[in-house]
């Protein structure tokens, strides 16, 4: 709960949607059931991936996969977040918004 980690290599399965992946992570992090949906929507919006919510993660572009990995590390507002090249392959505007 206190530490988030975004590895250099994407660490998610390719057969779940973006929304399913973030929901799974939120539940693993212990987000209360009634808050999971809001938390998932929040981070999809912050990282600009809400339009991809129903897409399978395997069908995403490299930059969008990095945004998903970053959002996975931020769900639950951990105290410390380790980011290993979270913006590799991400468009310049999204890079600026993230930082």
From TrEMBL:
GO MF annotations in UniProt: ABC-type transporter activity; ATP binding; ATP hydrolysis activity; lipid transporter activity
Domain ABC transporter, first and last residues per copy: 1-88
Protein name: ABC transporter domain-containing protein
Pfam assignment, any one: ABC_tran
Annotated InterPro entries: ABC_transporter-like_ATP-bd (IPR003439), ABCA (IPR026082), P-loop_NTPase (IPR027417)
GO cellular component term, pick one: membrane
């Amino acid at each position: 709960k206190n530490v988030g980690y975004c590895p250099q290599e994407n660490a998610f399965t390719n057969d779940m949607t973006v929304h399913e992946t973030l929901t799974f992570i939120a539940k693993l992090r212990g987000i209360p059931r009634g808050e999971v949906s809001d938390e998932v929507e929040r981070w999809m919006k912050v990282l600009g991936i809400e339009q991809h919510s129903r897409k399978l993660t395997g069908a995403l572009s490299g930059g969008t996969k990095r945004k998903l990995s970053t959002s996975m590390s931020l769900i639950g507002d951990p105290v410390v977040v380790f980011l290993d090249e979270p913006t590799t392959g991400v468009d310049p505007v999204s890079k600026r918004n993230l930082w």
